[in-house]
């Protein structure tokens, strides 16, 4: 049986773009009206026209054939809409939506890619098998965990602790860390701040044909290719994964 995260070597990479501010400022605050520009007596004032929405790609089709949303780009499996002159509106992902990928023995579903927040964060849902553990590593993003189902042991710097369903933790960028799945499976939301982890997953994964853990014969990158992916995305592997008895 091929173990999750097996075949991972060491790699070094370029740093992903830093986090931006999440707040927008505007003239209309707490109900204040937008100022009207001065006009001549012969030209009545009129509000500016509503900006045209950015053109979206075709709909994202669920496995049952229904249309979930219009999706910009060719890799985004979430409902999205952008209105105005580059001003983003809310974007969301419903249950079952997202780009599903088989990533090194796990199922990764990209619920919100970096494009949804102009690179400030990305949200990935993982389904991990028993004893899944990546090598001890660092990367140029904070990595936060919210355990939905199951139980994890997390090693981050000098700290080791357990997380069960409902638990959460964050590991700052450049802190060496790993984890181990102690339950039969675990379902975990992983927040990448800024975005970038989801792009590494995309580059080292294959599309998942079902919302399940991958079969033993699912394709995965050769060790040399995996090292190149890690190097390109700034992940540096520093040590072995956690074994069942570690």
Describe this structure in words.
The protein is mostly beta strands. It folds into two domains: 50-94, no CATH class; 98-239, Jelly Rolls (Sandwich), CATH 2.60.120. It is 7% helix and 30% strand. It is built from two helices and 14 strands, in the order E-E-E-E-E-E-E-E-E-E-E-E-H-E-H-E. The chain has helices at 197-203, 223-233; strands spanning 59-61, 67-70, 99-103, 106-112, 122-129, 136-138, 142-149, 151-156, 159-164, 168-171, 177-181, 185-193, 206-207, 236-239. The chain has a seven-stranded antiparallel sheet with strand order 10-7-12-5-4-3-13, covered by helices on one side. It has a three-stranded antiparallel sheet with strand order 9-8-11, with no helix packed on it. The protein has a two-stranded antiparallel sheet with strand order 1-2. Strand 3 (99-103) and strand 4 (106-112) form a beta hairpin. The radius of gyration is 22 Å and the shape is globular.
Give a quick rundown of the structure.
By secondary structure, this protein is mostly beta strands.
């Amino acid at each position: 049986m091929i173990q999750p995260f097996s075949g991972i070597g060491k790699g070094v990479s370029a740093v992903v773009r830093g986090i931006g501010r999440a707040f927008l400022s505007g003239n209309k605050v707490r109900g204040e009206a937008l100022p009207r520009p001065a006009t001549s007596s012969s030209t009545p004032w009129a509000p500016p026209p509503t900006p045209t929405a950015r053109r979206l790609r075709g709909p994202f089709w669920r496995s049952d054939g229904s249309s979930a949303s219009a999706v910009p780009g060719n890799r985004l499996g979430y409902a999205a809409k952008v209105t105005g002159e580059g001003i983003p509106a809310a974007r969301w992902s419903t249950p079952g939506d997202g780009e599903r990928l088989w990533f090194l023995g796990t199922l990764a579903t990209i619920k919100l890619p970096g494009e949804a927040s102009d690179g400030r964060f990305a949200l990935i849902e993982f389904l991990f098998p028993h004893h899944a553990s990546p090598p001890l590593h660092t990367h140029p993003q904070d990595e936060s965990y919210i355990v939905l189902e199951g139980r994890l042991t997390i090693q981050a710097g000098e700290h080791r602790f357990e997380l069960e369903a409902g638990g959460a933790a964050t590991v700052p960028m450049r802190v060496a860390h790993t984890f181990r799945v102690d339950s039969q499976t675990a379902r975990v939301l992983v927040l990448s701040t800024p975005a970038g982890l989801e792009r590494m997953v995309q580059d080292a994964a294959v599309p998942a044909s079902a919302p399940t853990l991958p079969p033993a014969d699912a394709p995965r990158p050769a060790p040399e290719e995996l090292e190149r992916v890690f190097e390109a995305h700034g992940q540096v592997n520093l040590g072995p994964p956690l074994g069942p008895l570690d």
